[in-house]
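Input (Expansin-like B1):
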Amino acid sequence: MALSLRYLLILLATLFLTTEASNFIHSRAAYYPNSDEHGTDVGACGFGSFGATINGGDVSAASDLYRNGVGCGDCYQVRCTNSHYCSDKGVTAVITDSGSGPNTDFILTRRAFGRMAQTKDAAASLLAFGVVDIEYRRVSCSYPNKNITIKIDENSNYPYYLAFALWYQQGDKDITAVQLCETQNFVCKLLDRSYGAVWTTTSPPSGPLSLRMLLSGEDGDESWIVPVNNIPENWKAGETYDTGVQVDV
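Output:
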């Protein structure tokens, strides 16, 4: 009986490890220079300086995972596969830019690239390699004590042109559509994804504006989320507005 129980436990452990390993996709990763502490503030997602410092600077450019901007803000667990240098945990990186290298899915900041290693000496070795084999999987983003935040683009021109990016989206779903609605007569307008994570509209609705965001999962599940707080009537370029809501992880 004891032998059978032991065999069962070993079998369950093996199945768990096999399932976990099967969730990862094999690829390669590189890093870009001058990124010891943070990423670039001119990334293709349109996050600006926020995209350089979010997640402590553990950010990445992506090629196919950029997905014409839909992938902006997505989080991935990335770990290199050389057991002599690499940790089992790897690093969680946020997509903030578009870029590609030789057969790579990720171009990490130098900081994030080194954090895949077991030790500082191992990190130095990884950095010397320049490009390493990795495995990755998508994971939920987590921003404790932060709500989804609207950042009005500096190029916005009240009341004729409105552009904004959405910051601090938790979870593992994509924002695939955004609507702006007048709070008085509930007339809504579907916005355009200009580039990256930047949503735009000419002739935006007037008055205080209610935002609606469509969240889409890889399993096909879709749901609309409506923030508690509105964009004020006299919104201003460069300002940030707390929506008062967050996605449950």
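The CA atoms of residues 26 and 135 lie 4 Å apart.
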